[in-house]
Design brief:
The chain has 81 residues and is mainly alpha-helical. The protein is built from two helices and two strands, in the order αββα.
């Protein structure tokens, strides 16, 4: 097997693993969006500070729209691959 075909095979496997990981994240994000969509209006929502165990009170509608945007970006990224 030539080095070029090995390189192509490695690239394909890498892309496949990337797609798999992105699909997993998309599924998780869909659950987040569904959960936020089905919350009662008076429920409190907390978001976690990045790289920390600290949570802050957040606006439910802003959190929902942010989660939807993130889901859309992930879907677009998957299509680009």
């Amino acid at each position: 097997m030539s080095s070029k075909s090995r390189e192509n095979e490695d690239n394909f496997e890498g892309q496949s693993a990337l797609k798999e990981e992105l699909n997993k994240k998309i599924k998780e994000q869909k659950v987040v969006v569904d959960e936020l969509s089905n919350l009662k209006k008076n429920r409190k929502v907390y978001i976690q500070q990045r790289n920390s165990n600290i949570f802050f009170l957040a606006d439910r509608s802003q959190t929902l729209s942010s989660s939807k945007r993130e889901l859309d970006n992930m879907k677009k990224e998957l299509q680009d691959l």
